[in-house]
Specification:
The protein has 12 helices and 9 strands. By secondary structure, it is α+β, with helices and mostly antiparallel strands. It has one domain. The strands form 2 sheets. Strands 1, 2, 3, 4, 5, 6 and 7 form a 7-stranded antiparallel beta sheet that branches. Strands 8-9 form a two-stranded antiparallel sheet. Helix 10 (281-296) packs antiparallel against helix 11.
Amino acid sequence: MLHDAIPKGRFLPLPDHAGRSSAERRTGIEIEFAGLDLPAAAAVVRAQWGGEITETDPREIILEGGAHGRVKVELDISLKRKWAEDLTAQALGDLVPVEIVTAPLPQAELLHAEALVAALRTAGALGTRAKLAFGFGVHFNTELPGPEGEGLASVARAYALLENWLRASDPVDLARRVLPFVDPWPAELVDALADLASDDPQDLARIYARLAPSRHYGLDLLPALEHLCPDLLHDVPPEHLKGGRPTFHYRLPEARLDLPDWTLAYEWNRWCVVEHAATSPELMAALTEAWKMHRGALLPLRRNWAAEVEAIMQRAGLAERLEF
């Protein structure tokens, strides 16, 4: 399978979009885990990247001036009331993950994030597969291909058509499936994106706000759309609008720090497959046509869409193009 060939030991480059170079696009990383408290996790970051620690409150530590910019180490919990957060953290213990949030990193510096993960693992950090109830994730906040939203709709369309393949090729952990944080995009949204001929982010925003007005998807487009066209998101519940920023918010990956062969590069490269697919008009046309046939079948649920995607990408030579 093409998915089985995805590299784990190196980071693939992002593709250029419509003649616009992706070489300077940066990515912020959020990684959740258990097994270390905040001071211990911050000490690992400082040992790897340097910086000075400022403890702002018992639930958050900031490191400034290190080799890779500002880093936040926090308890990943937000209940809007400090007393409720403290009580919940005490009750749930390590079910409330520690989260490290990096500054936007150049692609050449992603290998330093990999080294940080290795150091966390050595220090005793635990990932989502360590306990049945753990449901920890990795989020990639990758800058958009263009400042005005160029490429956003094409990548969204590619993700819509590939999401089932991503999930079937490496199933999401049960604890994460139960939690309402990485839901799959609705089929109606995939239908709408397959029909969307425009690359105007405003057209995408209207569709997304109507069919997927939530931040709890494997790919959350609300930060990008709130940055680009906030006036079109009136129907989105306010609690799902956390502030706009010119990035994708890809939150499907799992933090499997307890598995020695798991790497950030592997998860990053799965995202790169989506972006590379988006830049191939022939591949996207084939996937779109196949999706419409799939949806129009008398018994579409019995057809294996993930297998169709795999076969189409194999025929398109995507592995060779990405140099797997």
